[in-house]
């Protein structure tokens, strides 16, 4: 079987010339949604063949349709179906489930794309992106600092320096001055130098994963083309030539974040030695080296901040340049400084003993303060942008980005605090010989129980609202199925499904409340550390019995919960490695979370759309060029988002040959509300006017898909009335068995799907192709 071939060189098209005999052929390109499927299921045929692509993402046809363009007479009146299968980009193997550990990085990257739609304000838009990039940088430093806390402070400094703890963990014996008879590794500086290899290895692993995943997923070049004049108006960035190719920015950020991680480890290893040299009055040469170390760290931090602040995304053209000197030199320079610091810290210092804990409170406190200030400033900037083009459908009135950035910082705090608390409990057990992690982490753990109480109250409110909505829906269900014998159980089940599906629209409320409470309680924890310097239980000793008991309970419960949260995250990844069902669920999470390119954090999970969107664009462009035909782009769920993004990447002449059929689509319900700058009403309206035609199907029982809600007369031209679900209330001639409630799946089972599909295909047939439309006139 001969496969169809597509050739690309340096981002320019090449291929066979248009075949006149294939000009009457129509193509139906199917794009599946979250969770993935098989080409056999999409094409409804057990015999399929891959005509383009690889094991990661590919286009399939039925075996009988592989050479359809050579037999155009066999396809008059019906399209050639193709299936684009991209599920392996997100849930192809179990190791990707471990990307859950990168969840804070992914969430802060989403905050970058949640910028409100605006008119003008170019500098303010750049400031918004800069603030999110700085928040992402603090998360990298926080993660590496947590690794330093575990490896250097708790393990090498406290446990190895305490006889009782070292005896309980024999593998630390060679580091203990009491058990190794002052062996070579028992010196405090040498213990820190050896332990510093752990967070250094973590930083290098993050660099490697970022580089490898970009090469595998995001290095596909989009179709090279000139920007359209309309794109310069800021209608949507998804149509810009360089939107899906962020090589230069990702490389710069990867170098900066890698250097930031290495500088954090360098400070953790060399800082204690420099402080001892300065305070103990040691040799002058060591004191000078300590000052040089501090100066080098300051210079390195300034350079990292300059790199992060200097440049954002370049989308108006395909940016293939690479700052090679910067990308290579910054990490290498940080590694060289770290290596010199290892030699400096390992120098013999008589009289230096490890007592108490390393001074990590200032580091974690400074990070918490910086994150809070960044989130507050980001909220002010987002509000300024929102007021230039207010839209009542925008989530949280434009504050979705700051709220999500706050959640990313909270997730980072839970993960760092959870690791530190659990490792401290594991090392110390019930002996009480260790001082423990920094006090701020204990305060942050103590505010988790109040946060959960607020969350429980919010869930209760939503449950009450859902119960009331279900009562209203029961009346609506009876009106939707007139003349049917009343079945209370059946009616309640349908009404409950509709009410539960409506909870998706309440997500902004939950995110906003949780983010505000997290910011408020986090600020309280920071104030508690600064004013008392003790853990909550110790700080409340002189208070009333009720206050003291509440503080002790919050501290104990919070410590347990913060560790439990991290353990659940890790076990979820392990379970996903072994359980295909769990792996599929986590794959759905990544389908939603990793659609966007890595613009704020280079260590976030890879963006599958930087592979999928160019794939779809190349396929549509090469097929229309070779055949001169027209096509229907049919997308379900997340596939409809990919379809819209690919349509925006087409030249106007090709875009006019495309008809869109979307079903179960989150284009407006999720993306339009949370990402208004790219999927807002103006962007979706322009897409409707520029493609040949667009129809959208949805159900009231669908928790993900919904109407597109275009303003004015465009709305009814795109959205069909809600489909009935279930198709039949009771047993009928067509449905002798009870019809299922389909919700988000199996839209093809509804007769309306075939009807709308046939309408679109009828428009694309040569004898029915309409003339050019005026800009303001949308065809149905």
Automatic annotation (TrEMBL):
Start and end residues of each stretch annotated as Disordered: 1-26
Signal peptide annotation: none
Entry's transmembrane regions: 127-147, 192-209, 255-274, 286-308, 329-347, 367-386, 398-420, 440-464, 507-530, 550-570
Keywords: Membrane, Transmembrane, Transmembrane helix
Database matches in InterPro entries: AB_hydrolase_fold
Name recorded for this polypeptide: Integral membrane protein
Coiled-coil region: none
Taxonomy of the source species: Bacteria, Bacillati, Actinomycetota, Actinomycetes, Kitasatosporales
Database matches in SUPFAM superfamilies: alpha/beta-Hydrolases
